[in-house]
Amino acid sequence: MSALVTRALDAATDVQAARARLRQARAAQDLAAAGLRPSVGANASAQASTPEGGPTSRQFRAGFDAAWEADLWGAGRAGVAAAEADLRASAATLGQAQVALAAEVAATYIDLRSAQARLASTQASLASQEHTLRLTQWREQAGLVNRLDVEQQRTTVAQTRAQLPALQASIEQAMNALAVLTGDAPGTLHARLAAAAPLPTAPADLALAIPAEVLSQRADVHAAEARVRAALARVEQTDAERLPSLQLSGSIGLSALTVSTLYPGAAAASLLASVSWPVFDGGRLRSRVRAQEAAFDEARVNHRATVLAALQEVEDTLVALRAAREQQENLRTAVEAARRAAELAEQRYAAGLVDITNVLLTQRTLLAAEDALAGTTTTLATQHVRLYKALGGGWTPAAAVAEATASTTERNPRPTPRQTSGPTSRP
Known about the structure:
Layout: H1 2-11, H2 13-34, E1 39-49, E2 57-70, H3 75-141, H4 147-181, H5 190-193, H6 219-240, E3 245-256, E4 267-276, H7 284-350, H8 356-390, H9 397-406
Antiparallel strand pairs: 1-2, 2-3, 3-4
């Protein structure tokens, strides 16, 4: 299962799109930081003119221009802080996509192994029922039972056999889904996954009480927190734009009649300082500030809603886990009792002590109990995957941002998922 998760993380289109958005956020942060630094440009020109009847005159120019806007009120720094928060939100979004994909692969794998286990259980029950059918036919030939007993047992066998195609279809569909999730065509994993394997299980001593602090590692909570910081920084940036700004610019240039005479002694330099202040703009900047303040309030509300939803998801999953564990224990006891009852009923029927009705009842009860146990075992494994996802396991925000910083020139950078304090090493 771990290999399938790794392949899916490399091939999934939504994860690749999230990585592209992360690179965009990294570039936007670099762009915002570049605005705090001076800009320098070089220029050169050559001009030739020939008046009518006169000699040709030439002029050559070369120089450098520089400009810088002083960040007096922190607008530029606030813009950089907002871009950094956007970068962390993008990294968290990527982590959320990775965790969701890993959970989907794990849940599909569990469905596959569960269908295979149910198929094996149904086939075993069918073999037992067919044995009973042959025994009933022999007893009919001996005149010990009538035709009704044979037909009743044949009905049970046919009903059980009718379940096999649906289970086989579920197995093939699950394998097709895993193939698509891992970037392959449907059917490519059949040979690899056709052999039945046990369901993955979590440790039996997994704690059923999770501290609220663990939720801080959830990707959606990280993203919501980052969006709040970004919105607050944009309020500060927009508010600072209402204050005066100071711009410095200067140039150094050379001018001569020939290229060979361009030398430092012929240089001319200039320096310009300008101050601008939006005295009256019809309330445009103030309206922008109010809009950013409203966006900040929205981000705070969304953060609270995200945290509450995360708490509910974890609590609901823990409740479902406890219920599934209790149900599994009771069903195991029921399966053992039903299996013993079926064996006793078949033995007593072979000895002529009971009629076929007892055998039919115990066989159907055993098949139903085994199917219910398989379903509960699947539910328990799936709930562990849901708990892994609810706790935000499988990613680290610092590693995601560092990977984005180091890999902006690569074509497809990807943060490597790493297990944090989730319930299992990987779903």
